[in-house]
Amino acid sequence: MDDNANYFEVNKSTWNKKVAIHAQSDMYNMEAFKNGKSSLMAYELNALGNVEGKSLLHLQCHFGQDTLSWSRIGAKCVGVDLSDEGVKLAKQLNGELNLDAEFVCCNVLDTSKHISELFDIVFTSYGTIGWLPDLKPWAKMISERLKVGGTFYIVEFHPIAWMFDYIDGQPKMKYHYNKDEVIYEEYEGTYANQSSKMVSKEYGWNHGLSEVVNSLIEAGLQIDYLNEYDESPYDVFPDLIKTESGMYKMKDQLFPMIFELKATKK
After folding, report:
1. CA triple 216-218-221, angle to 5 deg
2. How far apart are CA 152 and CA 216, in angstroms?
3. Which three-class secondary structure state does DSSP give residue 64?
4. Which residue spans within 85-219 are E strands per DSSP?
5. DSSP code of 133?
6. pLDDT tens column, 34-51
7. Helix axes 84-96, 65-72, angle to 10 degrees
8. Is 244 exposed, middle or buried (0-12, 13-18, 19+ CB in 10 A)?
9. pLDDT per residue as tens digits for the range 192-205
10. CA angle at residue 114 from 111 to 118, to 5 degrees?
11. What pTM was estimated for this model as a whole?
C-alpha cells in the first residue's frame, strides 16, 4: 500500500467517526435542516444562482446536507464522499426527505471510475482540497465530469488560514503556504464539536491559490473569477467575531479567510 492510500484510510476512519457526532451537533442543526432549512451559504447561492433542472455533482459531500439543499431547489444531484458512514446517512436523509439525490462512496480522485455521466455543475465547498495530495488529478476528474460549457465552482478556506497550527487554541504560524509534504495532526474533538472526546487523526496537504488555478487551467477549464473574502460563514477558527451579516471575522484581520473560484469547461 502506498503512503497516500494509507493516509486516505486513516482519514476515512476519522470521517466515519465524525458523522454521528456532526449529525448531533449544533453546527449541522439536523432538526432545522429536516424542517426545510438550507445548509447552503450566501457565497455558493450567489455564485450558482438558479440551479433548477441542472445536473450537479457535489464532491466531498460529507453526509449530504448541501447536496440535498441543492436538490430541494431543483438541481438533479449526485454527491460523492470517502466516508461510507457519511454516504449511508446521506442516503437515509434523501429517503426521509423524499428527494431524488444519489450518493456514491469513493475517494474523490476516483470519481470518474464510479460515475460516467456529465454534469452542468461540479461543486465543492469548505474544507475539501486540503485532503488531497495533488490537485492535478482532482482538476482532471472535474474536467472529465463537466459538460462543455459547464460550471465548476469551489468556495474554500483561504490557504493562508492553513499556515497556522490551531491545536492549542492560539494560532501559531507553522506550515508553508504551498506544502508538498503531508501534514499529520492528532487532536481531541472536531470542528463541529470541540468538546467531543473523539480523537481526530488526519493527514492533509496545503495548496496555494496558484496550484488551484493552474491545475484547473491545465485540465482545460477557463477561470471566470477568483475572489477572496475576510468573512467566513463558519465559526471554525479561534476567537472569531460575529458580524452584522451573520458571518464571522477575526478581531485583527490581516488576511482573507475564504476564497471562491468559478470556471467554465471550454
Report:
1. 50
2. 9
3. coil
4. 102-105, 119-125, 146-157, 164-165, 172-173, 179-188, 199-206
5. S
6. 999 999 999 999 999 999
7. 30
8. exposed
9. 777 777 899 999 99
10. 70
11. 0.96
* Average pLDDT score over residue span 81-108: 98
Answer for the pair 154, 125: CB distance below 8 angstroms, yes or no.
Answer: yes
Residue 72 has pLDDT above 90, yes or no: yes
Cα separation, 26 vs 210, whole angstroms: 35
Mean pLDDT (the chain) is: 95
Contact 205, 4 (CB under 8 A): no
Neighbours of 243 (CB within 10 A): 12
- DSSP structure class, residue 37: -
Q: Are 82 and 60 in contact (CB under 8 A)?
A: yes
What does DSSP assign to residue 153? E
Question: Any idea what the CATH number is for the domain that residue 93 is in?
Answer: 3.40.50.150
3-state helix, strand and coil shares in percent for the chain, rounded to the nearest 5 = 35, 30, 35
Please, are residues 60 and 87 in contact by the beta-carbon 8 Å criterion? no
Reading the block at residue 125, the C-alpha cell is 465547498
Looking at residue 83, its pLDDT comes to: 98
The conformation of residue 107, written as its DSSP 8-state character, comes to -
The Cα 10–Cα 30 span in angstroms is 26
Domain that holds residue 106: 3-265
* Each residue's pLDDT tens digit, 4-29: 999 999 999 999 999 999 999 888 99
DSSP 201-218: EEEEEE--HHHHHHHHHH
Number of domains making up the chain: 1
Displacement of CA 168 from its chain's centroid (Å):
24
Evaluate whether 248 touches 215 at the Cβ level (below 8 Å).
no
Q: From 91, 86, 64, 67, select the one nearest 13 (Cα to Cα).
A: 86
